[in-house]
Specification:
320 residues, Rossmann fold, L-2-Hydroxyisocaproate Dehydrogenase, Chain A, domain 2, 6-stranded parallel sheet, 11 helices, 14 strands, globular, binds 3-acetylpyridine adenine dinucleotide, NAD, L-lactate dehydrogenase (NAD+) activity, EC 1.1.1.37, Lactate/malate_DH_C
Length: 320
Amino acid sequence: MARPKIALIGAGQIGGTLAHLAAMKELGDVVLFDIAEGTPEGKALDIAESGPSEGFDASLKGTQSYADIAGADVCIVTAGVPRKPGMSRDDLLGINLKVMKSVGEGIAANAPDAFVICITNPLDAMVWALREFSGLPHNKVCGMAGVLDSGRFAHFLSEEFNVSMRDVTAFVLGGHGDTMVPSVRYSTVAGIPLPDLVEMGWTTQEKLDAIVQRTRDGGAEIVGLLKTGSAFYAPATSAIEMAEAYLKDQKRVLPCAAYCNGELGVEGMYVGVPTVIGAGGIERIVNITLNEEEQTGFDNSVNAVKGLIEACKGIDNSLA
Ligand code: A3D
């Protein structure tokens, strides 16, 4: 059986890391596409030359031609610009919307059967626009954010409790922005919900609130430290987890930006929700019940995403 083909649209910081991880995990052959001449070719060659040491079997190719992504099983989209210190993700909307148009058309023409994972920010609006431009089925187009935001939350919790990250299950809902909703009630250590751990004296409510806020600001914290761009190791690792779930039909339960058709009260748009990812793409949305406080936070986040979608429609008439 031929190896799966993984197309990476955007060969910048995240794209290069995705290629390295996909090759090391032997998920398939990798095509790196970018408009910056030489960048995808250089990264593909550099990673391929690490193969003899690592011992992986995967071919890597860099290109400026969409024809080279033909028949891709998975497309991961990072094309666009990242934010710099002082910028919000929403400041990227105008530039990245144009990029989504060319990427959506490139995927539709060359890899219409692919499972598409968008990472470009502002995430929830860009994945919506990418789906509109590509015309692919909604269950085959999703956005990576929840795995990363939950990973950040889990990391901070494991440090606070001094326990293995493997035993922390963290859960973040809503749009990938300042309004995201880290759910304290649905996050656990070995099945014990966080509110119970506060009662047990493992932490205080104040410390937990601070961790929730640090999770919301997790992207900005890295942007502030790096100064020249945004996070890329954890975002790439998170998207690879989703791609692997699809390619290996793992039926993983992962939070991601998925198209909601009434689930969690959301109609006709993308927002971060728990999903099941397997060979059918987004096979199911886990339709959890929220309490009043969670619902208020979630609604607030959904409204922020709606505002960005309206802004997209205002910029590009074909989306209206
Ligand atoms: P960067 O290293 O700048 O890479 C972006 C690449 O896109 C560059 O190599 C560009 O040449 C390329 N590019 C620009 N326009 C096009 C085009 N039309 N077609 C093909 N390629 C193009 O950025 P990065 O890799 O650090 O980040 C990529 C995106 O991911 C940004 O929008 C970030 O804001 C976003 N991001 C999202 C998350 C989430 O959790 C959702 C996290 C981190 C970054």
